[in-house]
Amino acid sequence: MRLIIGEDEGLLREGLSRLLADEGYDVVATATTAPELITRTLALRPELVITDIRMPPDHARDGIEAALTLRARLPELAIIVLSQHVDSVGATELLADGARGVGYLLKQRLIDVEPFLRALPEVAAGGTVIDPTVVQTMMRRSRPDNDIDRLSPRRRETLALMAEGMSNSRIAERLSVTESAVARNISAIFETLGLPPSADDHRRVLAVLRYLDRQVH
User: Fold this and answer.
1) 43 falls in which pLDDT band (50, 70, 90)?
2) Quick check: pTM over 0.90?
3) Which end of the chain is more exposed for a tag (fewer CB within 10 A), N or C?
4) What three-state secondary structure class fits 82?
């Protein structure tokens, strides 16, 4: 898999490059600023971009803005945001922009690299992987009068785990229930949220987007 790393901290940038090269990934370029990340990605067309949020020139939301720009230009590009900070609005913006091939992980998790390495092929294949801490932050910022509020506690818990990118089998393991029970809960979630079967819409992604939007506003 060809990828580009956008990171202005030299030690982390070089460490990630070596780790990923050792794992068999083709790190075709690195970038230390958001404009550089955009330019190199458009020129080299990797499958995946890993980017920080706070990058030069402004050290604010430059990485998120670069990611949104790249997704607008390259809709199939997979993006993993790797940051010390939780930007719940930025995460929602990325998910809303196609909602496939998006990851939001915290740098603190790199102490254990295995979850990070597992996330790479999952996101590259179109999956969504969100750090639990990001989800928890979103949950603390709630608004009333939403269909999410009509879900039972167990179904809200199931939807929260879906938002973390878990499969039915992993949700079943986390909740100590059968996969059939998880499937029934997810079907009930779709019905409550008014998401009928459709050939065009990915109901699981739409349900997660509805959930994340509920937490942000």
Assistant:
1) very high
2) no
3) C
4) strand
